[in-house]
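Section 3.1: Structural characterization of target chains.
Under the original work plan, the team committed to producing a structural model for every single-chain target entering the pipeline before any wet-lab resources were allocated. The record below documents one such target. The sequence was received from the expression subgroup and is listed exactly as submitted; it comprises 349 residues.
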Amino acid sequence: MSKSTLPSLQARRNPLASPATQRETLRQVPLPREFDEALRQSGLHPLRPGRLDIFQMNLGKMCNQTCRHCHVDAGPDRREVMSRETMELCLAALAKTSIPTVDLTGGAPEMNPHFRWLVEEVRKLGRHVMDRCNLTILETKPHYELPGFLAEHRVEVVCSLPHYRALNTDKQRGEGVYEQSIRALKRLNALGYGDGQSGLRLVLVTNPVGAFLPAGQASLEAEWKRELLRNHGIRFDSLYALTNMPISRFLEWLRESGNLETYLQRLVTAFNPAAAQRVMCRNTLSVGWDGQLYDCDFNQMLELPVEAGAPRHIRDFDLAALEARTIVTDRHCFGCTAGAGSSCGGATT
């Protein structure tokens, strides 16, 4: 069976499809200290948000790929999709704020039937839009013309690509994914994305293929720019290096491969107070496909909503109350605070 067509944890009725089971699996691993303890020792407890700069919307768990590391457990078998009604609630909330950036994610956010309408409405509000794209979606027939739409609306495209070599990419994402991704990148380049002059921002996102932390983001970016330009003539603006979070399918792989305890201890040992000061939950609000509110995308997947007392659904949006909340944390948070740090915007230090 192709890696790209592996069924999701949910479809396989895997115990780890339950967020509660994932949290319990992490808690059973012996660790030298807990995350809250690490925060206290660094003078950062309790962790609180600053000004909200990013309004992140998960448009659904449906995806044309089923990647081995996916923390969303997304795939073609998933049917959770944000409704237009929930999108309208999000737009109403945004209109009450000056939050500058709307981050659209999934699954493959482009598979939501209201994706183009949402982009147009957000742009009418004068906000910057980011589309977290897996690249191969742009090579499918229903979405083949999407790059032109994204360019027309000045959408920043943040593309996931495990490696600049085919072997490592296809190992994580499925046979043929690398070739499709390169074709999509060339089409984006042809529209001006990544040229440094058009203002059409193109970002690549990579994460390790294994139980280790990413290398330095700056050095990786220089290497990727050199190799993709030399081998394919591809240009891009920035590279984000993300740490694999020990949840969902990556948690399953860690457990099955015998790497779970070693990986978690590696994250704890690499805890960086400077990274903890800049974690994305401090400037980002995550909205689930059903309108539920979370401190971050990872808490969303573990079904850890914002703390009691803060608004927990977009219909009850209250910016002042949300900026005054305490951020909900657990052991998986060591993933965002290890080494140079990791966020939806890459390294944090």
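The CA atoms of residues 194 and 237 lie 5 Å apart.
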